[in-house]
Model the fold of this input.
Amino acid sequence: MSRLVRLLLRKLGLYDLTTHEDRLEIDAEIERRTGLSCDEAIERGAISKEEFAAIVLEVLRRRRRPSAESLVMHA
Done:
């Protein structure tokens, strides 16, 4: 699991909303969208905070966590 994904989730106050499985899905989606490893994509700025938050929201919606949307939108 990506070290920088965990750090960014904490920075945005979203870490506690995600499970280990959610974070693995977030990692996979970042890699799919950028073609880079998660850490490399974040380090290079290949994914913005807004894109990152959108990915997190997408993963959380799949798990049907409606309260997560309002928290992500304010991050």
User: Anything to note?
Assistant: The two ends are 22 Å apart (CA to CA).
